[in-house]
Specification:
The structure holds 2 protein chains of 2 kinds. By secondary structure, chain A is of the alpha+beta class. In chain A, 30% of the residues lie in helices and 20% in strands. In chain A, 43% of the residues are buried. The chains are: A alpha+beta, B alpha/beta.
Chain lengths: 238, 816
């Protein structure tokens, strides 16, 4: 059964427990940061930071808002990064969970091409060329545990379960939230395994809330060729 | 908390003011969120827009230090529009009590003020008594001397225009919040307040809470589910440590520390045991001698008997009229009156107000013992910024303590739940549990005093038998706190064997036949076992999230205190859906004939005040059983600074005149005056209001979080938040380092320029405010540049508690 997250940003208080829990489970080192005139830190995702709570101060309808967006890999149902890589030993989808997994073999890939292929600008490169990002805590999930970020969330923002259950939950919450925030929406719900509920238009929250379409269509010649060949390679893989 | 964390979910309206729950009590938002999902309104009132405000239905700002003006306006609104729950107010609060002729309020002063000693003679605030010695009452609330009418008169000055001029809060916002909150005066509706140090750390801290208590009593929100007055405690066990006498003026279980004038145990018990002549007042504190004697028996065991007044003379007495609070201790230390000091699980060099003075004071000691997990700014003060180690004579000892997870014991959370926890890993290296350290310290002192010394009895006679196989035994201490029968006795018709645990404080005795280290915890560890270790997830029949068999709660496992105020005079709940207790005794011919309460443990199991036919019962008791007269106190004649709250400006403020009365600041607040205690109000050098606070990512002085790379990554540096308008005025760029200065010190911070702070309009003038987190200190991060915000905070505090006024003071901010 393929898995999914439902992230209800309307409930997020940016306590950032998820951000720390992610580092703790993956044993990732802290980055040396400075205060940049904001609470948000580190400044960006990195090889050592898979999850980052974005914090934006924006006025909407004459009301100040502080919008929190726990950013992470969307584990796309048809991941362009895996497609671009074309090398299941480097990037593959775990059929049991749907997690998009990067291995050390990503060092052999054209890193910039993979990063560029991501409509959400998620993967990051180590100096040695290996790419990293959220792995859905796949090791926890296949052992019946919740992802670390979900386990630690106190408000019900982070949810995890079977894709159909998460989609149902997302639609139920959307219907409720819409009564207060008519512009509320589910971001790219049909193409991802990390479904965000947002109360405000995406541009008020973060520039990568929804997929950047130009990236999606701007594929390389190799990818185009691979897409043509895909039905055959899939057969070979089975 | 009068209620508890889970109960927040039952609320119809949640006011978060004087706290920032989403950031500093993140788990509470599980229940806030649940209430919101059920339709509750969340109101956030804070000088700056916080992560809490981001989730609120209504947000507004007020200038730090003006909460009484803000809430006083709400009291006026409730009274003017008659939104109070009249049945509740007339029967359960002291609103109908008639106040004596002497009581008055003029020029910002209540009657009885002694201007020389800055103290009130509280006898000027007493109630009128009838011929039986019971307060005179007018339950119709019309008498001009009744508390409700006096309250109306007192707060008549708090109109929205004036409140807005003081607080800087727009009148429209005041009105919206007053309206939303006071809608819960309707029967069956409840609103709750979640507050913390944003209310307490002021020269009017106690009266901030009093103002809210008055609102909650007026609206009938005390004792009900989803209501109460709820202090969000800043440490996992601060409730427990306060219960067990962390503070100088109380013994365990909120007994009084004896004064020098309490010359004998008899005099002490007489002085502090209230007497009521009202047969309907339970006046629970009439049991005071049972609790004080049982505590002495617990301390001194067989050495305490009737002949030696159970060892009362061995315990220290404080001088009448003298305070021994944190501020006073460091003042004495600074004045070289205190020569030795244990800093135990504390970091005063960063945590106190005006820590420049604290750090100087540490240098005047002969010796200091620092008991902590890690070295800190306190233990290393002698090599701190600006200190020449060759000039410091203080000898410092460091005793490494183990962490909470490395030891067994209990902690008591804000909701009064005593929760047992077990040892995980063994203590690392040479570190030891606090219990082991203090047991050995006590044993050494006993051995030394046995071979001589002045007045050895208090130490030599201590029972001190809490070891098992040479190690501190938390179960022995927990049982000691609960208490034992010391003889074979019969109490209330039941026989008890010597050496068995007392089942509840109702069985404690004043004759030396029982012991109890803390009467309030009697019932926590009984012959049935360790109640705090229970983990049943079964809810009570009212299904409001009481979970009565999960851990244990004081008193006697009552989860919501004052819960008999949650029912009407006939014992039936105001709120049928979220009822706390209800009376289900049998009735015959319109009269109750048997007693039965269901739900939570009721605040006393007496009959309700009325029978089903509306007739009054003589055998009933008023619901506020801890009050002498059994009524919730809208009029509070016990406070140092007045029976009603009144707005006074902080010691340091931006306006020369208090717009509400002729006194600028609380006339009874202590102000310290050594040369390290500089302060400046309405001074052009320090034009901006400042406050301090916490962030989610750090804890207290940061000793356990600044050293934690993942948390330092999130909040690496001390910062000052300011409005875009102020930044423009001072030419400050977002993210640059700036200097913040008060009359006491300067502090380098990173500027966060944000729309979340806005300038205030105060009495026609634009007033800016800034805010700084106090988690930092020079010892870590390594570069030593991130210092404590408490270098800036002022030398004053609340006259009742002497909690320092760290939440409102004046500073300047400038480019470096």
């Amino acid at each position: 059964m393929s898995k999914a997250f439902f992230i209800d940003t309307t409930l997020c208080t940016a306590c950032r427990g998820c951000q720390v829990a992610c580092k703790q489970w993956h044993d990732l080192p802290a980055e040396k940061t400075v205060n940049r005139g904001t609470y948000e830190n580190p400044a960006d995702l990195s090889f050592n930071t898979y999850k980052l709570v974005r914090m934006r101060e924006k006025v909407a309808d004459k009301k100040l808002g502080w919008h929190f967006f726990p950013e992470q890999c969307r584990h796309c149902t048809e991941p362009p990064c895996a497609e671009t890589a074309g090398d299941p030993s480097a990037i593959y989808v775990d059929q049991a969970t749907g997690a998009v997994i990067y291995t050390a073999n990503t060092a052999k890939l054209e890193a910039d091409e993979i990063i560029d292929s991501c409509p959400y600008n998620i993967p990051r490169k180590n100096p040695d060329g290996i790419l990293a990002k959220c792995d859905m805590c796949n090791d926890r999930v296949v052992n019946g545990l919740l992802p670390a970020c979900v386990k630690t969330c106190p408000t019900g923002t982070m949810n995890f379960g079977n894709l159909d259950e998460m989609m149902t939950l997302a639609k139920q919450r959307l219907a409720i939230v819409k009564k207060t925030y008519p512009k509320a929406m589910l971001a790219d719900a049909d193409s991802v395994r990390v479904i965000y509920l947002i109360a405000y238009p995406p541009d008020l929250i973060h520039d990568k809330v929804i997929a950047s379409n130009n990236r999606y269509h701007n594929i390389t010649r190799q990818v185009a060729l691979r897409r043509i060949a895909q039905p055959f390679t899939n057969i070979l893989r089975v | 908390m009068t209620n508890h964390w889970i109960d927040i979910k039952n609320s119809d309206c949640i006011l978060i003011m004087g706290s920032n729950a989403a950031e500093n009590h993140p788990i509470s938002f599980k229940y806030v969120t649940e209430a919101q999902k059920n339709g509750a309104k969340l109101i956030s009132v804070d000088p700056r827009f916080t992560r809490t405000s981001s989730k609120a239905d209504i947000y507004t700002a007020l200038r730090s230090g003006t909460d009484i003006a803000f809430l006083g306006g709400m009291i006026k609104y409730i009274l003017d529009n008659k939104l109070y729950q009249e049945e509740y107010v007339a029967n359960y609060t002291n609103a109908p009590f008639l106040v004596g002729k002497k009581f008055d309020f003029k020029n910002g002063l209540f009657a009885g003020f002694d201007s020389k000693n800055k103290k009130y003679d509280k006898s000027a605030w007493s109630f009128q008594m009838d011929e039986h010695g019971i307060p005179k009452m007018d339950r119709s609330l019309k008498d001009s001397r009744c508390v409700l009418q006096l309250l109306k008169k007192h707060f008549s000055r708090y109109n929205m225009k004036r409140v807005s001029e003081i607080t800087g809060t727009p009148e429209a916002d005041l009105k919206e919040i007053y309206k939303t909150y006071s809608a819960t005066g309707a029967k069956g509706k409840a609103a709750t307040i979640m507050y913390a140090m944003g209310w307490t750390q002021h020269t009017v801290g106690t009266q901030n809470i009093r103002t809210m208590a008055i609102i909650q009593l007026l609206l009938g929100n005390m004792g009900v589910a989803g209501g109460g007055v709820n202090a969000l405690r800043g440490e996992s066990n601060v409730q427990g440590s306060t219960d067990h006498c962390l503070l100088w003026h109380i013994w365990p279980g909120y007994l009084k520390t004896p004064r020098a004038s309490n010359v004998s145990l008899e005099a002490y018990n007489k002085k502090w045991t209230p007497a009521s002549k009202d047969p309907k007042s339970a006046n629970w504190w009439q049991n005071y001698p049972k609790y004080s004697v049982s505590m002495l028996k617990s301390f001194f065991g067989d050495k305490a008997d009737k002949e030696n007044a159970f060892g009362y003379d061995w315990l220290p007495k404080v001088d009448d009229g003298k305070a021994y609070s944190w501020l006073d201790l460091f003042d004495e230390m600074y004045n070289e009156k205190i020569k030795g000091f244990f800093a135990w699980g504390m970091n005063p060099a960063c945590s106190g107000s005006n820590v420049g003075k604290v750090r100087e004071a540490l240098g005047k000691l002969d010796w200091m013992v620092n008991v902590n997990l890690f070295d800190n700014e306190t233990g290393s003060f002698w090599k701190g910024p600006g200190v020449d180690p060759t000039k410091v004579d203080t000898e410092v000892f460091f005793l490494p303590a183990c962490a909470s997870v490395e030891k067994e014991g209990s902690i008591t959370n804000s909701g009064r739940w005593m929760q047992w926890r077990y040892q995980g890993p063994k203590p690392l290296g040479n570190s030891r549990s606090d219990g082991d350290i203090i047991m050995e310290l006590g044993a050494k002192l006993k051995a030394l005093y046995k071979s001589g010394g002045k007045f050895p009895e208090p130490i030599v006679n201590l029972k001190w038998d809490y070891l098992t196989d040479g190690e501190y035994d938390p179960h022995k201490v927990a049982k000691e706190i609960n208490g034992y029968f010391l003889n074979d006795v019969t109490v209330k018709g039941k026989n008890f064997k010597k050496g068995t645990l007392v089942p509840s404080f109702a069985y404690l005795q004043a004759d030396g036949t029982t012991s109890s280290g803390n009467w309030l915890y009697c019932n926590s560890y009984t012959e049935k076992g360790n109640m705090a270790a229970r983990r049943s997830q079964k809810d009570a029949p009212n299904k409001i999230g009481l979970y009565p068999e999960f851990s244990w709660c004081w008193p006697v496992n009552r989860r919501i205190i004052y819960n008999r105020a949650s029912v009407d005079l006939k014992g039936q709940p105001w709120d049928k859906e979220h009822w706390v207790v209800k009376f289900e005794g049998k009735a015959k011919d319109g009269k109750y004939v048997s007693k039965k309460w269901v739900g939570d443990v009721p605040d006393g199991g007496w009959y309700p005040l009325q029978n089903p036919d509306g007739s009054t019962r003589g055998d009933a008791k008023h619901p506020f059983i801890m009050r002498k007269h059994g009524h919730g106190q809208i009029f509070g004649p016990g406070r140092a600074d007045g029976p009603f709250p009144e707005h006074y400006e902080p010691l340091e403020c931006p306006i020369e005149k208090n717009l509400m009365n002729a006194q600028r600041m609380n006339p009874t607040a202590p102000v310290y005056d050594t040369k390290a205690d500089a302060h400046a109000t309405c001074d052009a050098r320090f034009p901006f209001v400042a406050t301090t606070y916490r962030v989610s990512e750090h804890w207290q002085t940061g000793l356990m979080t600044r050293t934690q790379p993942w948390l330092l990554e999130l909040q690496p540096q001390v910062f000052v938040e300011m409005s875009e308008e102020l930044a423009k005025l001072k030419g400050i760029e977002n993210g640059e380092r700036v200097k913040v200065e008060s009359a006491r010190a300067g502090l380098e911070c990173t500027a966060i320029v944000t729309p979340r702070f806005k300038p205030f309009k105060i009495a026609g003038n634009t007033i800016h405010q800034v805010g700084i987190p106090w988690h930092y200190g020079w010892r870590w991060p390594e570069d030593g540049k991130e210092e404590s915000a408490n270098l800036l905070t002022p030398p004053t505090g609340d006259p009742n508690t002497r909690i320092p006024e760290t939440k409102a003071f004046m500073v300047n901010v400038s480019k470096i």
